[in-house]
Amino acid sequence: MLTSQRLHTTVLFILTIFVSTGASSAQDKEGEEQPTGVVIERAALTLRSPESYQVLLQLRPVRSLPVVAPMDGVVKNVFLKVGDSTKKQMELIRLDSQELSLELKKAQSLLEVAKIALSQSGDAKSKTLLQAKLNVAQRELDLAQFRVDQTILRSAIDGKVTEIHITKGQFVRAGDLLATVIDPTQLVVQVPVERDVFDSKKPFTLTVETQTAEAKVDAVLPPISEFDPLRELFVSVATARLHIDSMNGKFTPGQAVLSRMVPKYPVAEIQAVAIKTDTDNPEAERMVQVIRGGFVRSLPIQLLGQVGQTHVFVSARFADGDELIISTSEELQDGSWVRPMLLEDSASEPSTPRRQPNTRGNLF
């Protein structure tokens, strides 16, 4: 008999999965199997929307180098387009250098004049002065050559062009961003981790969209502001900076990274005893069961943070009105139809419910 303390969460249900006993007089009489009575302890779920915990995690290049205009000028040529690969010191963009080229020629001529004047001087004092003038002319030539070279913008690394911000003929100011070149072979991502249980000395297995990657932990840092909402679900949150070698091109910048700490579906605080695990297969998904619209549903869960000793946060495909099954007197299969026995008239024999199809599988 149920105690008064458990009546608010426990009720006796009748399943529509009929158990064949081979000795039921009612079965012999009616030709139908009788329902099985099962005690189910259940509790209502309070759901939290996953949207408040969503964080965009994606791979980005370790090296992303902007190509910036060193001076005011007009874009004369753009030699590459977005998506092109580039080698170190390859020419990317050239600014118009006509005026600077004329200044270079002028500096070359002045240097020649200084050399001639020095060679024709016979006085020691004059030679000293003319040598100084020759040195100045040489510096002027070096400066003019440097300015001409600055009109040729080259790639500083082997990589790929991801952005071109200008077009041929466009006037640009010194400091304007002209293009972006990245190194796609070395990638990094920052993910949330539980500081108390995270081991920074071990390789970190990362899920990148539908693939897995072995990442090296560069550093464990304080949580970035985007991870602040996760503090509601976990006791101690930190940021792990993870480095991925993608020399084989398996991963590319911008790919989404999945974290077990970021819930995908509604979040609920549940009793830990309600979680079902396969003791024979530790890698199998953890599950919980709920009653939804009179049917038992088995839902895979994403395990989140611990709440004390008895409760835990989980994320699953919960729906409004779901009741968590905490424990049962018999194992229930997904898709089983249940209804309260307490609704039956206790003074009369329970009527045999009409056989229903045993719907199994996922609702989703």
Describe the 3D structure:
The chain has 3 helices and 24 strands. With 364 residues, it is of the alpha+beta class. It has 3 domains: 4-52 and 265-343, conserved putative lor/sdh protein from methanococcus maripaludis s2 fold, CATH 2.40.420; 55-62 and 183-258, Elongation Factor Tu (Ef-tu), domain 3 (Beta Barrel); 65-182, RNA polymerase II/Efflux pump adaptor protein, barrel-sandwich hybrid domain (OB fold (Dihydrolipoamide Acetyltransferase, E2P)). The chain has a 6-stranded antiparallel β-sheet, with no helix packed on it. A 6-stranded antiparallel β-sheet has the order 4-13-16-15-14-17, with no helix packed on it. A hairpin with a 3-residue loop joins strand 21 and strand 22 (311-315). Helix 2 packs antiparallel against helix 3 (124-149). Mean pLDDT is 83; it is low at 1-11, 14-29 and 343-364.
SSE blueprint:
Blueprint: E1 10-15, H1 25-30, E2 36-44, E3 47-48, E4 60-61, E5 64-68, E6 73-78, E7 85-86, E8 91-95, H2 98-120, H3 124-149, E9 152-154, E10 159-164, E11 171-172, E12 177-182, E13 186-194, E14 204-208, E15 211-221, E16 237-245, E17 257-258, E18 267-271, E19 287-292, E20 295-300, E21 302-307, E22 311-315, E23 323-328, E24 338-340
Antiparallel strand pairs: 1-2, 1-24, 2-23, 3-18, 4-13, 5-12, 6-8, 6-11, 7-10, 8-9, 10-12, 13-16, 14-15, 14-17, 15-16, 18-22, 19-20, 19-23, 21-22
Helix pairs in contact: 2-3
